[in-house]
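Sequence in, structure out. First:
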Amino acid sequence: MEEQLCQEFATNNFVVENDEAAQQCDLLWFGRGAGASMCVTFGLKPDELVSSWELFYLNRQMDGGRVLNSHLASFRQFLERERRESFRKKQTGLHFYTEEDIDMLLDDGKQNGELEENPLPGTPRAVSANKQISNPNILFEGSVYEDPDNLTPPPVASKTRGVGTNTPGDIFTPKFGDTPFGRRSNKCTVQSVFNEHLVEETSDSVSPPASEEEVVRRIRPIQRCQLDVIGTWPKSGCRYMFDRTENRVNAIERRMQKFATSISEKLQCNLATHVAVASQEKVTVVGRLCCEGEGRLNEKSVLLEGSIEHSNGMRVRLDLRNVSQFSLFPGQVMVVEGQNPSGYCLVASRILDASPLPLLTKLSQEEDPPAKRQAIHLLPQDPVQSETSHQLCILTAAGPFTTSDNLAYEPFVELLAYARKKRPNLLVLMGPFVDRDHPHIKQGNVDKTFANIFEEQVRTRVEEYCEEMGEGARVLLVPSYRDAHHDCIFPQPPFDANGFEDPDRQITLLANPGLIKCNEITMGCCTADVLRHLSSEEVSRAPPGVSSDRMTRLASHLLAQRSFYPLFPAAQGVSLDLSLAPGSLDLPCTPDLLLLPSNLAPFVKVLSVPLTSSLEHIEETGNVAATVKSICINPGHLAKGITGGTFAEILIVPYIENAQSQILESRAKVTIMRI
């Protein structure tokens, strides 16, 4: 057990010290004592314990890859909470009583005076045998027999709503301030800020207004931004669940061919070699990574599958002992240089796994991006404004938009109230909107259809927001495969435009995943939790003494592989269908902003991927400009459990004469805020 734990931690790049260093540095060796006892206590295997620690490590945003003694108690509580939540999900029809239930019962009784009028009953005393019983229903003094069929069950004490019954009307209209979300104390607190030195434009007038009419007159109208939807996607109302193995094979083959063509053009090499041909000379082949077994990928179980065109889909074992740095996951397409003397095992000496596309702003005007574009132009009466002369303000939030104890959508109402004060140019709302994993949705405690819930709680409020803010305000809606009222497939078509009342064309409906250009900024959105899926499947190695930011590395795989979802096979729960719109997961260009909502902790990272597909080339030439950069944002979820979550506010300042200021990295201010 101890050796397996040590090996698993070393495989996942976590530092495991010896006993002497543990005493001096106050480190705890999980492999001796604590980790083994946790494996026994929680019934976990070594690889499962390390995976749980990895999730705990990412959510806490720890650095250095160390296992500190001070984190051991928190990690144990994390494991206990995960096991508790897992058991509760299996027992959906039961209520788990806690100390809070008792406190709520007592507090409610004291407020209503019930405890004084009706004291707690004691043990009944039997009636004496000599005493004549006038009423046969009276078995004990102070107690009367009643028919059980006529008894009314007492109200159930709910952990989140106190004593009362959960009727369908209550979950849609709870009492104001009677929910944990309404009683929260950390409203609109700033979690983190990227480029804090950038400031927002304010009004030139500083004198206070004299009346409400003057306030309205001084409010400048929102500058309408231009939106261009880029890419291909499934159409609304399409028929799905017809995905065949042939479609998946063709999609993988198409990815490998595009990747091989890109690498061969850059490196001027031939990639038509069979992966299983025995040769004493160095060969360069292209293929995708597979796992030998059914479990998680590790260094000893990596297989390289060649293309059907050149290798007939054959697989060989990939030996990585001579590669000092890598980051691998199933489905990753890469070029491998090495020797295959036996024809069964390819000993790699170098791997090339990155071939990103340039930014859309750097593509030549003569060369259009390889995708269909649907332009959503400005209104005819709007004057054409310069795309870089005004600041661009974007608010982005991801679902769930309601807490788990009701369907009142309180966080969503608060977000729209904040948007009315902030007056952003674009409001980006990413699903799920009607979450299929919501407790009331799963248990069927609703008296409305899922489409009616979306219409009343989301669509109506969005239309009222657009009408109130004026024709300059824009709203972008992105669905999720967890939406109960929409097609449960991935990639996913946009919402049906016929269901929205949008006379001024302020509401834009984007597919999942989707790419859109807002003025000069290109944004990519994907509501599938690809970061967490990659985190659970990735295996990496770094040279000694070199630290690597895990979130940056995971998000960079999307740019390097030119795909919104490069993982294959897809994670459990993702209804991947590659037959509807071939190429809908491909990135037609590298986006300036990449919005990836995830269950992991919210963050803002700058991604930098070499265009030359080789880190060695940059080190030899020193050409840092040969890298493509993008800003990745995880805004978190607007609702987390019974309380509020986080959202992101993005501010893009206009160009200045200085050349350095034209880089989006230096012109974007991103604020992660709590709702």
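Second:
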Amino acid sequence: MALAVRGCSLAFIFIIMWLLIKAKIDVCKRGDVTVKPSHVILLGSAVNISCSLKPKQGCSHYSSFNRLILYRFDRRINFHHGHSLSSQVTDLPLGTTLFVCKLACVNSDEIRICGAEISVGVAPEQPQNLSCIQKGEQGTVACTWDRGRDTHLYSEYTLQLSGPKNLTWQKQCKDYYCDHLDLGINLTPESPESSFTAKVTVINSLGSSSSFPSTFTFLDIVRPLPPWDIRIEFQNASVSRCTLQWQDEGLVLLNRLRYRPNDSESWNMVDVTNAKGKHDLLDLKPFTEYEFQISSKLHLYKGSWSDWSESLRTQTPEEEPTGMLDVWYMKQHIDYNRQQISLFWKNLSVSEARGKILHYRVTLQEVRGGKAPFQNITGHTSWTWIVPRTGNWAVAVSAANSKGSSPPTRINITNLCGAGLLAPRQVSADSGGMDYIVVTWEPPRRAPSAVQEYVVEWRELRPGGDILPPLNWLRSPPYNVSALISENIKPYICYEIRVYALSGDQGGCSSILGNSKHKAPLSGPHINAITEEKGSILISWNSIPAQEQMGCILNYRIYWKERNSNSQPRLCEIPYRVSQNSHPINSLQPRVTYVLWMTALTAAGESSQGNEREFCLQGEDTTAPGQGLDRLAHS
């Protein structure tokens, strides 16, 4: 069987060689093309190309009938009548150029005689920056180098490594772009200080060159494999003491650790010696997602660091919260005997919560009543009680995670606007852009030094709504008399803003309406009723829907004119008040039918008119000359 396979292989090789020889004979059976001095030349050199016909291969016995043509690729560069043609060619480009000789006979197609390829290149430059590396203690030696400029010629590279006891290894590659070779041998640590010398030689048809020798030891070129099996242990489920562990190759002496929170761009770096696969970390933050990586090295001064290991990502354990909640409150009278206390608080920051907040503990207690306190546990950030109006009340609020509770925030419930002397003055709210408002004020006139802090509070203005919108607030030190509010601020929404000045258990407040951006309202108020009262009328209307107000309304206008009259309507302008939805008009003539409508104004302009209503005053004309509203005017 083996003999049969060997016989088939030899027959196959013979057939291939015969086909190649026949192809050459078929292509050049009429003549030959010769190239001098060589088929491979140096860039800038000239070359002589000759084409000659073999005997009896021309058009006729007369040479003048033979027209030989020389082509460079598909472009004709020379021709001659006779049995031979010779041409000198210069300025050939780098690379390979094909020349073809053809015979043209009268009244026939051109016949291919023969052809030749000429390769133009340069001698190889000296290989530079030869360096070798062995990846891992069990890896093989691989070397890389810079080839220099492209020779555009077939080149052969030989990498040779010489070691102790006259040992020599070498490997070749035959490639235009060869710049690395793996010798396939493994250097062992038996003699870590033994020297090895590597050299690479390149040769082509125009010359040869060798690199400078590169001498190194085992410790110089062996790059450890990246550490593996990385894990972390938290002693007693606490972040205060954790141990990072990993596996390394046996000869590793140094390790470099890097770690960072997942939301950070910068790394914390630690270098350790003789770690033996573990290291304690003492500065991790609780309840934080971290990424860990490790690199290794065999020697303090020699060799190179391994690649970084695959990342270990894990979350550190929780710890007891440390921050105190920012608590705010509202107090509202319900009736003669009862009041409603509403508490609000903000979430702790991640660094303060140090874990997932599971609930909040709220305690409300009468200061001197001796009664048992009201206590509640809630997952929300607000709570409301109804308590007697008598007595003084105090609250405490704390946040809890799986490890414990934060220090409680304690505040005494007081009348935040009870001290008129503490009320901030000249409060203003200016549009700062699409999503913020700048609030400014002046300190209380009579007690500016008593102010311990200011609190700026804001919420969307929704007159008549059953559900109050979320309350927002920020605190400001006593030396600041301005604040930029941006939390939950949206354009074209009106906000009720209050500025509180706090001093011990006393407080004073002032309020204003403000918006970050405004334009004219989309519609006017809807008049829902007109009633007659002793010679005047009372107009009632529905508020403009909040989404159509487009900012803070400054004024309402009531327009009226006689029905079918072409005269300009009269108007009454009313300053906007949150709770107002009616207004009297006492300048109408009895037994005259009027048409009435309303508009609303923001700082950006006036809305379109609302619905029209007709009304005829039935009573006697009791309007004295000149009587009317102070702000009655012609449009």
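Remark: The first strand starts at residue 31 and ends at 36.
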